[in-house]
């Protein structure tokens, strides 16, 4: 007689978690934070702490130069926003960054389209790429020295203009209040357009040829293809580069300081040079801190639009 036995349905014994295993699991979870900790520490020490200190300085008076500073509230901000030199620097910065960004975009797109065309041979494109990328290879210090020599009243630029009969005598491009701002803007355009050119060239090479072929079948000319195919495809790159260029150009200091120093007569005074002079020429560190916070807020507005555009993209 066969005996039937019920299957064993008892639950398996629970696995015991030993303290050693708990510590091992916790260690594995903390490993990523260990890798990030040096970077986080550097960011806190080199960025967060200085920003907090500058913000605190902007609400106090007689900071750094005196041991016991006093709370001044928004007095430093009022002083900065009503300072004619600050308003002149704000105006010059707006002109400087807007003209530079538009010129960077136009020149970069024009040169990128020329390097992307099928009308030129590979050797010709390689030569043009080397020539057009040269301004990007120099540091700001070298660029400032070169253009100070070129724009000198007895420099090469004036020599060429006199030879062509454009001017009768040497023009002091960096010393004339009516011409200095446009001169440094031109130098900034010359030194910055290669970055736009390379980025837009990469964008052009990523546009499928099928779109151009379909547009050609529809009977469009080259301008219509540029307007309805090229520009829409390049729009994400153009917007990203424009916002980044606005941020970078607004923080330009070395070029201005090494060419004109903000002069003559504050004709090329920028927010960066104004802040530097307040701190290290007049030793008004509280006013300089307030100006730096204002510049930070303006830059954060541009950064907000950049991040927003990247998310939409």
From TrEMBL:
Residues 1-20 are annotated as: Disordered. Keywords: Cell membrane, Membrane, Transmembrane, Transmembrane helix, Transport. Residues 90-306 form the ABC transmembrane type-1 domain. The chain crosses the membrane at residues 33-59, 94-115, 127-150, 180-202, 285-307. One of its GO terms (cellular component) is plasma membrane. One of its GO terms (biological process) is transmembrane transport. It is found in: Cell membrane. It is a multi-pass membrane protein. Belongs to the binding-protein-dependent transport system permease family. This is Sugar ABC transporter permease. It comes from Dactylosporangium sucinum. The lineage of its organism: Bacteria, Bacillati, Actinomycetota, Actinomycetes, Micromonosporales.
